[in-house]
């Protein structure tokens, strides 16, 4: 798009007929300048987008969080936890899913000390992993879907009488401490 706009601006005629021939029109010259600037910006943006985020990069990201793997015998996609291939019937070893570094969390607001210990005990009692959140807050998770975090919030409030909210814990904002491996 930027190349087309630049090309159109360069061939644009900025002169108008006058009594003794043709003279340059300041309005048309300003319009050509605007088209040149916009075309240049679009061209640079297109080049940067092409270099940084091609279509293949999102496929790689999706594949890295997939819950499937290739069967070692027939190369068909099977679940990570599978012990037998559904395509060829080969016995395979189950692979533990990768530990999430970010995701949806049932966040429990608390203060340092006894309040924090009580929240952490409630999370552990339900079998959820406890993760540090911002400040003294503790979270249950992370979970891959928001729905799983909502279920954890309901279980925390219903079974443990602990108030929690659903938050997204990321690794790039710097808001949350890093998770241990």
Structure description:
This protein folds into 3 domains: 2-51; 65-96, no CATH class; 103-169, Alpha-Beta Plaits (2-Layer Sandwich), CATH 3.30.70. Strand 6 and strand 7 form a beta hairpin. Helix 1 (2-10) runs antiparallel to helix 2. Strands 6-7-5-8 form a 4-stranded antiparallel sheet, with helices on one face. 40% of the residues lie in helices and 19% in strands. It has 181 residues and is an alpha+beta fold. The radius of gyration is 29 Å and the shape is elongated. It starts with a helix and ends in a 12-residue tail after the last strand. Mean pLDDT is 83; it is low at 57-65.
Question: Topology, please?
Answer:
Layout: H1 2-10, E1 15-18, E2 21-24, H2 26-52, H3 55-64, E3 68-70, E4 77-79, E5 103-108, H4 114-125, E6 130-132, E7 138-143, H5 146-159, E8 165-169
Antiparallel strand pairs: 1-2, 3-4, 5-7, 5-8, 6-7
Helix pairs in contact: 1-2
Overall shape: it is elongated
Instruction: Please outline the major beta sheet.
Output: 4 strands, antiparallel
What's the CATH superfamily of the largest domain, by name?
Elongation Factor G (Translational Gtpase), domain 3
- How much is the radius of gyration in Å? 29 Å
Query: Quaternary arrangement of the chains shown?
Result: single chain
Broad structural category: alpha+beta
CATH class division of the largest domain: Alpha Beta
Residues in helices, as a percent range: 25-40%
In which order are the strands of the major sheet placed? Answer: 6-7-5-8
Unreliable segments of 5+ consecutive residues: 57-65
Give the terminus-to-terminus CA distance: 46 Å
Strand content is 15-25%
Order of helix and strand elements from N to C terminus: HEEHHEEEHEEHE
CATH fold group of the largest domain: Alpha-Beta Plaits
């Amino acid at each position: 798009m930027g190349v087309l706009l630049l090309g159109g601006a360069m061939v644009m005629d900025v002169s108008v007929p006058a009594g003794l021939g043709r003279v340059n029109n300041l309005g048309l010259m300003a319009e050509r300048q605007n088209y040149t600037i916009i075309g240049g910006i679009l061209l640079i943006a297109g080049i940067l987008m092409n270099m940084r985020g091609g279509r293949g990069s999102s496929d790689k990201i999706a594949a890295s969080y997939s819950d499937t793997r290739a069967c070692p015998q027939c190369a068909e996609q099977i679940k990570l936890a599978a012990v037998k291939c559904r395509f060829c019937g080969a016995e395979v070893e189950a692979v533990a899913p990768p530990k999430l570094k970010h995701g949806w969390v049932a966040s429990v607001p608390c203060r340092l000390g006894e309040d924090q210990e009580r929240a952490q005990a409630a999370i552990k009692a339900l079998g959820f992993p406890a993760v540090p959140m911002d400040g003294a807050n503790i979270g249950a998770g992370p979970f891959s879907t928001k729905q799983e975090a909502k279920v954890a919030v309901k279980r925390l409030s219903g079974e443990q009488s602990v108030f929690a909210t659903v938050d997204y814990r990321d690794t790039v904002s710097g808001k949350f401490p890093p998770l241990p491996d």
